[in-house]
Amino acid sequence: MPDTPEQPDATAGRITLAPRVSVPESALRLQYSRSGGPGGQNVNKVNTRVQLWVSLHAIAGLSEHATLRLRQLAGSRLTIADEIHIAAETERTQERNRQAVLDRLRELILTAVKEPRRRKKTKPSRGAKERRLKSKRQRGEIKARRQGRGD
């Protein structure tokens, strides 16, 4: 598996995002702009902020359930056009911000691909129920004594 998500896999022009999940480079829409906030003259001159848009339909290798989980995980990052929008402006260079955006997309997809574990229903034992009820009775008696009713 490639070390970085932007290295193409066996198929030329594709970016591997997770095992058996990839997207064509042509499906990624990147836009560069100036970052906001402090940073001196560099902020005012260099387009280091990176915004990424990728259509959910362009991501190959996701199961139907994984796509539904990805929609939920994307939340407000999902646009009306069914695209995931991710932005990064934390790094000083455009290339590092580009890498950060792709890393965030990769994390999102890895989380969506992971099948959630089914919860096993459990039932408390009879002893556990008795202990719980006994402690509730004791607590009730303590509170009753505070009120001076001492039943």
Output the CATH class name of the largest domain: Alpha Beta
Give the proportion of residues in helices. Answer: 25-40%
- Total of helices: 4
Mean pLDDT: 85
The CATH architecture of the largest domain: 2-Layer Sandwich
Which structural category fits the helices and strands? alpha+beta
Sheet with most strands: strand arrangement? 3-4-5
- CATH topology assignment of the largest domain: Double Stranded RNA Binding Domain
End-to-end C-alpha gap: 72 Å
Could you characterize what this model shows?
With 151 residues, the chain is of the alpha+beta class. It folds into two domains: 14-113, Double Stranded RNA Binding Domain (2-Layer Sandwich); 124-151. Helix content is 38%, strand content 19%. The strands form two sheets. Strands 3-4-5 form a three-stranded antiparallel sheet, covered by helices on one side. The protein has a two-stranded antiparallel ribbon with strand order 1-2. β1 and β2 (21-24) form a beta hairpin. The N and C termini lie far apart (72 Å).
Keywords:
elongated, alpha+beta, 2 domains, Double Stranded RNA Binding Domain, 4 helices, single chain, 151 residues
In brief:
By secondary structure, the chain is an alpha+beta fold. 38% of the residues lie in helices and 19% in strands.
Give the helix/strand layout.
Blueprint: E1 14-18, E2 21-24, E3 28-33, H1 41-45, E4 49-55, H2 64-74, E5 83-88, H3 94-113, H4 126-146
Antiparallel strand pairs: 1-2, 3-4, 4-5
Helix pairs in contact: 2-3
